Amino acid sequence: MAKAKSSVFFCQNCGYESAKWMGQCPACREWNTFAEEPVAKSPGAGRSGAARRGGASGKVQQLNTVDLKETARDGTGLGELDRVLGGGIVPGSLVLVGGDPGIGKSTLLLQVCRNLAAAGKKVLYVSGEESLQQIRMRADRMGKFADTLYLLCETDLDSVREAIEQTKPSAVIVDSIQTMFNEAVSSAPGSVSQVRETTGVLLQIAKGSGVTIFIVGHVTKEGVVAGPRVLEHMVDTVLYFEGDRNASYRILRSVKNRFGSTNEIGVFEMCGDGLREVPNPSEYMLEGKPENASGSVVACAMEGTRPVLIEVQALVGRSSLAYPRRTVEGADINRVNLLLAVLEKRMGLHLSSSDVYVNIAGGIRLREPAADLGIVLALISSARDIVISDRTIAFGEVGLSGEVRSVSMAKQRVLEAGRLGFDTVIMPQAQCKAVGKVEGIRICGVRSVRDVLSFIG
């Protein structure tokens, strides 16, 4: 008779399970990520929490008979957070909030607790990392809290479940999921098994009782939530808190949302009394932009459905090194190298012997190719020492043959530029007809990177 396994190996990156240790994970292809964990002794511990969760109804139903009644949402009191969530909190949803240590995750959620409690809703804040006194000290900096906010410092999941059943709150905050411990799983807190099974139990509570649960997740050095990748698949919404800890602003980004748009962002400013909303990110990002300086161009990027104007800075100088330096902050360095090759081949700019520095001012990261034209203009401006007007913006994707290709939501980008006082927009020629005439704005359509010289001198 075969001997029962007492332990298995899990990939700490994606949760892949193996009977033996392997150097490279066959699922995510990462090296040295396998860790040994004992097999759960509980009969139900080996099952996924998502498989045990209870739904609204277990009977088979025809698609056309499903009720499409709009689910009522609860406002968080923070307009930027409501925007990222798709209009507010959906009752019975499970929301994962990730971010670097000290970025402001606990502060944001404590402010949500304050606003919900002020609206007369009962809220339970469960902390596995801080004491009651520490939470009270942080809360005192934010102001006065209503009596409907309850605190619990506990890491045992069974005790958390009992507290939820007794208080019957409208929302629960779990800070953090890596500190929670499920006795049905014999591995240590923070392990792959514990994180997966604990999240499964919380998901069952949320769907069964209709309570909204926010869980805080620590991130790895790669910037993803620590634990198995299946954690992000189990929850309804995944929010990432981004930003430079040395800067005052913070960006809350939605990367998954079953109840709203993905890649939506909310911008906050860290102040002494907590996080303050930034309703106009474009104006905030352009503060301090230098005047009459070469190598500085304003580009327009779309963050979800919101156009954001940002400053692109470039510095091109003669190099004394055998291999010229390439430094990029806020953009993909491989994309910048591609654009440098296009400029050298299609425009005759000799950049292979020059040091090139590209910076996205404000610390924001550009993720879409529509910023290509802004980066190209900044590089040309610095290389030829041409000053581009402060009231000019640019957007468009640049191809390998130097053509400027169409991008999404061109009309919204132009309108945002006009709202902030810009009078010239350099954009793809193919979209000029669709955008039409906009009062107070001169639209300059370009077909290739060579055409931009006629508009910048």
Task: Write a short abstract of this structure.
The protein is of the alpha/beta class.
The CATH level-2 architecture of the largest domain is identified as 3-Layer(aba) Sandwich
> Helical percent range?
25-40%
Which sequence of strands runs across the widest sheet? 6-5-7-8-4-9-10-11-12
- CATH fold-level assignment of the largest domain: Rossmann fold
Low-confidence spans: 42-56
Count of domain modules: 3
Please give the radius of gyration in angstroms.
Answer: 26 Å
How would you characterize this protein structure?
Helix content is 26%, strand content 25%. By secondary structure, it is of the alpha/beta class. It has 3 domains: 7-38; 73-279, Rossmann fold (3-Layer(aba) Sandwich), CATH 3.40.50; 284-456, 2-Layer Sandwich (Ribosomal Protein S5, domain 2). Strands 6-5-7-8-4-9-10-11-12 form a 9-stranded mixed beta sheet, sandwiched between helices. Helix 9 packs across helix 10 (372-383). The protein is globular, with a radius of gyration of 26 Å.
Tell me the layout of helices and strands.
Blueprint: E1 7-11, E2 17-18, E3 34-38, H1 49-52, H2 79-85, E4 94-99, H3 105-118, E5 123-127, H4 132-142, E6 149-153, H5 157-167, E7 171-175, H6 192-209, E8 212-218, H7 230-234, E9 237-242, E10 249-257, E11 265-271, E12 274-277, H8 281-285, E13 296-303, E14 306-318, E15 326-329, H9 333-346, E16 354-360, H10 372-383, E17 392-394, E18 397-398, E19 404-405, H11 410-419, E20 424-428, H12 432-435, E21 442-446, H13 453-456
Parallel strand pairs: 4-8, 4-9, 5-6, 5-7, 7-8, 13-17, 15-16, 17-20, 20-21
Antiparallel strand pairs: 1-2, 1-3, 9-10, 10-11, 11-12, 13-14, 14-16, 18-19
